[in-house]
Design a protein that fits this description.
246 residues, 28% helix, RNaseH_sf, eight-stranded mixed sheet, Nucleotidyltransferase, domain 5, RNaseH-like_sf, single chain, alpha/beta, globular, two-stranded antiparallel sheet, 7 helices
């Protein structure tokens, strides 16, 4: 980890792969309500990396297409597209979909004892009607706990282009397909690895930030970078401890 050294040119770094970083993690690809409920009902992690891929609805809010979670034990891809049902088609042929909501997935998202870490949590708003509780934004967290980002303005967000090279000495492979493809295409092995990487790198970066947080004599209050999403709104969690197990 090269947090306080001269930055390495990102193009010279290897690509991140959850298969290499978490070689013992089991991969789960869930495509039905039955599969999703069965797995999510028995998985009880304390912390997970989380990411959402989405595709826009015509004239409506974005629609979550794929949901990803990861820790050192599991890398989980939930294909919500496979649970879509066509609800209406307008005169131009545009289709609107309704999304099945596996009850155990909703429980998992609303469980305040499970910390969900990642970037760009605005995408979580696309999970229609579902509360997502106890989220932690890695950009905000890194800027609060790591002095090397102190020069950034409040509205400047860190991306994987900064977090991957800085904390893991890796690059995150980019999606060169475009988000609309998540509505139309089948998921192949390379797509599944890309999806798994998005959640796994979030968990890996959090594992690097947590020791820095633990070493601080006066850590920032957890509520400054921990929040829930309720009815489309960010709600700070002032009573959440700074550390995941508080």
């Amino acid at each position: 980890m090269n947090r306080f050294t001269t930055p390495v040119e990102p193009g010279a770094l290897p690509w991140f792969s959850y298969k290499e970083y978490f070689p013992n993690a089991r991969f789960e690809y869930l495509k039905t309500e039955l599969e999703t409920n069965a797995f999510m009902s028995q998985w009880k992690p304390e912390i997970v990396g989380m990411k959402v891929e989405w595709t826009p609805r015509r004239n409506e809010a974005p629609n979550a297409a794929v949901l990803q979670f990861a820790n050192e034990e599991y890398v989980v891809v939930i294909d919500l597209r496979a649970m879509w049902t066509e609800s209406e088609r307008d005169e131009r042929g545009y289709v609107s979909y309704s999304t099945a909501k596996p009850i155990e997935l909703s429980r998992f998202l609303e469980d305040t004892s499970i910390l969900k870490v990642g970037l760009d949590h605005a995408k979580l708003l696309s999970i229609d009607g579902t509360y997502v509780k106890t989220c932690r934004d890695l950009s905000v967290m890194a800027k609060l706990v790591d002095p090397q980002w102190s020069h950034l303005r409040a509205r400047q967000a860190l991306t994987w282009d900064e977090l991957g090279p800085t904390y893991l000495d890796v690059r995150l492979p980019r999606d060169n397909r475009g988000y609309t493809d998540w509505e139309e295409d089948n998921l192949y092995e390379k797509d599944l690895e890309y999806l798994g990487n998005g959640a796994a790198i979030a968990f890996a970066v959090y594992e690097c930030l947590e020791p820095i947080l633990d070493a601080m004599e006066e850590p920032p209050k957890g509520g400054r970078f921990t929040f829930s999403i309720v009815r489309g709104n960010y709600v700070p969690c002032p009573n959440i401890g700074t550390r995941a197990r508080d």
